[in-house]
Structure formats: C-alpha cells, structure tokens
Amino acid sequence: MTQSRLKTVIVTGASSGIGAATARAFSGAGYRVMAAGRNAQRLHAAVAELENVRTWSGDLCDAQACADLVSETIGAFGGVDVLVNNAGVIHRARAEDTTDHQWRETMAVNLDAVFYLSRAVVPALRNQGGGAIVNIASDWGLQGGERAAAYCASKGAVVLFSKAMALDHAAENIRINAICPGDVNTPMLAAEAHQRGLDVTETIAACAADSPNGRLTEPEEVADLAVFLASDQARAINGVALPIDGGASA
Predict the structure, then answer these.
(1) Which of 111, 121, 171, 179 is 20 to 30 Å from 10 by CA-CA measure?
(2) Which helix (H) or strand (E) holds 112?
(3) Rounded to an integer, what distance in angstroms lies between the CA atom of residue 107 and that of residue 113?
(4) Residue among 163, 82, 76, 84 nearest 124 (CA)
(5) What confidence score (pLDDT) does residue 2 get?
C-alpha cells in the first residue's frame, strides 16, 4: 500500500513573530513546511530546529517569485495543501504624512503578495481536490486605527479579498479565511514603538493594559488558530474574518 503524502504548508514572513510561530505550529502538527522570508539568514535561524522544513528566500512583491515559490514547494514536497499569507509591514503615519514609498511598500507586501501567492496556489489546490488559504489580516482591517492609514487600507483589502475568494472557490473545496489579530507580542509591535519615538517597554505595557484580558496576544495563539482554520475540524468555516484580540473588538 502506498504511503499517503504528508500535508504541506507554505508560510510567508516565517523569519520572526507570527510567521515563525506558525511554521513551528504546523511542523508540530505533522505538516511539511516551506518557510518563506526575505532574509535568508534570519529565516534559517528561525526554523533550524524544526522537522520537515525547507526554506525559500525571495521577494514576494514579485509575481514571478510567488509562482516560483509555489512550484518549488510542489517539487520539494509533492504538493501543497495550505497557504498562510503572513508577511507584513507597517508604517505609522496619517495619510498626509505617508510617503509614496511607504504607501507602495505597504500595499506591495501586505496586499500584492497575498494576491500573487493566492493566485498561484489555487490551481494546485484545485488539482488535488481542495485545500485552505489563511490570510493574516488585522483588527485594523475591520476598524480604523490612528496614524496607520496605509496599513489599515491594506489589511481591509485583505479581509474583503479573502471573502471574495472564499465565494469563488467554495464549490472546489478550497477555503479562504482571514485572521485579524489585535496587538501581538512580536518584533513588529516594538518596531511600531520605535517609529513613533515611544519607549518599547512602556508601549507594550500600555497595549496589554488596553486589552480586556489584560495581556498581549502571543504569536503562538495566532499560529494555533491558523492550524485550526487549515484543518478538517474547520471544514465548514469559510470566508470569515476572525478577530483574536483578547476581547477588544467586543
């Protein structure tokens, strides 16, 4: 009897934060993982101890690179079952203070890459009878945030893109959902504080205090939710934008 192929996931932005935690969570759940990121050295360090993991470094803002990532994953693992679009950037500024470069970079990383990779992976998912795409959006894709005009626009677009794709592909057993984290204890949160000239420790403490449950969400909690949404246990969940924010959106 032929042994069934282990399921395979592509995780972008896997060199730190939510992406690294997601690569660990899927590896722990028995998946083969293609961990993607821009910085090869950081990426290798983040996933070096994981089983059944390969790395890919490149510019996901380029459509051909995204197509190559999907092709290389299929070549390495024999197929692909799940895509987690996690790579993201943030520039903390009002619209009038946002430069053209900041706007384009935000849209390219947060939205264009999601589109390019999703477009590239759908035929592979269809050919094997289905699969799942999990997009890491934000609570600021559901509501506005101060001094984050480009980021909010990009994440709001990811939410509606996820819903539109979910409708287009539901009959093909391809599910697309968006996770919308609030403040998460990641390097990006510290980077936001630096951008605004704030003390990192004080900023993290203030964000935790603002949450109804009195703490930040941890990357591992977002990662566990991604594994669940990709699993058969979530087979009836499609087209949702699910907050994970300690109750802040309530």
Answers:
(1) 171
(2) none
(3) 9
(4) 82
(5) 42
Query: pTM higher than 0.85 for the full model?
Result: yes
Residues 64-86 as b or e (16 or more Cβ within 10 Å = b): ebbeebbebbbeebebbbbbbbb
In CATH terms, 8-182+217-244 corresponds, of 3.40.50.150, 1.20.1050.10, 3.40.50.720, 3.40.630.10, to: 3.40.50.720
State residue 1's pLDDT score. 37
**Secondary structure (DSSP) of 192-223:** HHHHTT--HHHHHHHHHHHSTTSSPBPHHHHH
Distance CA 38, CA 58 (A): 5
Catalytically active residues, by annotation: 151
Encoded tokens for 104: 């384009």
Q: How far apart are CA 16 and CA 187, in angstroms?
A: 8
Phi and psi torsions of 215, nearest 5°: -155, 165
User: Is the four-CA dihedral 248, 82, 228, 241 of positive or negative sign?
Assistant: positive
**pLDDT tens string 200-213:** 788 888 888 889 99
Dihedral sign for Cα atoms in the order 163, 229, 84, 205: positive
Number of helices (H), then strands (E), belonging to the chain: the values are 9, 7
Residues 155, 169: Cα–Cα separation, whole Å:
21
Residue 244, SS3? strand
